[in-house]
Amino acid sequence: MHNLYVSLGSNLGDREQIIRRALALLDERVGAVDAVSTFIETMPWGFQSQHPFLNAAALVHTMLSPRRCLLETQQIERDLGRTQKSTNGQYHNRPIDIDLLLYDNLHVDEKDLTLPHPHMHERDFVMIPLREILPSE
């Protein structure tokens, strides 16, 4: 069993309900969701919007490979109404965003998959919820 940490964010629609639905779909399709952080509200990062985000982090115990986890989370995003991905630093409003943050102690550096997430330490909206559910050392 592998430990997968993910970040979830929503700034369109019923943000809390969408994140809760994403968590249920993660549990169904990726693996057992064993910890969920407190939800926090933050202003958009990297773009201007009048729609604040609701953010959370979760620990998922999975048997899937990192690549399969990425494919499943992208499908969950589409199923919950996301129509476009952020690319080349161009961010936008979205009903759901799910980012893979950590997968065990694995390091992956591929075109569309980098683990640990390369920018997570720059983003309080990721690190505050993540620190809440990371085990203390």
Q: What would your notes on this structure say?
A:
This protein is α+β, with helices and mostly antiparallel strands and 137 residues long. It has one domain (2-133): 7,8-Dihydro-6-hydroxymethylpterin-pyrophosphokinase HPPK (Alpha-Beta Plaits, 2-Layer Sandwich), CATH 3.30.70.560. It is built from three helices and seven strands. The radius of gyration is 14 Å and the shape is globular.
Short description:
The protein is of the alpha+beta class and 137 residues long.
Give the domain tally: 1
- How much of the sequence lies in strands comes to 25-35%
CATH architectural designation: 2-Layer Sandwich
Shape assignment: globular
What is the CATH topology classification name? Alpha-Beta Plaits
- pLDDT average, as an integer? 90
Order of helices and strands: EHEEEHEEEH
Helix content: 25-40%
Q: Low-confidence spans: pLDDT under 50, at least 5 residues?
A: none
CATH homologous superfamily heading = 7,8-Dihydro-6-hydroxymethylpterin-pyrophosphokinase HPPK
N→C terminal distance: 20 Å
Number of strands: 7
Reported for the largest beta sheet, the result is: 5 strands, antiparallel
Q: Number of helix segments?
A: 3
Radius of gyration: 14 Å
- Please report the first level of CATH classification, the CATH class: Alpha Beta
Structural class: alpha+beta
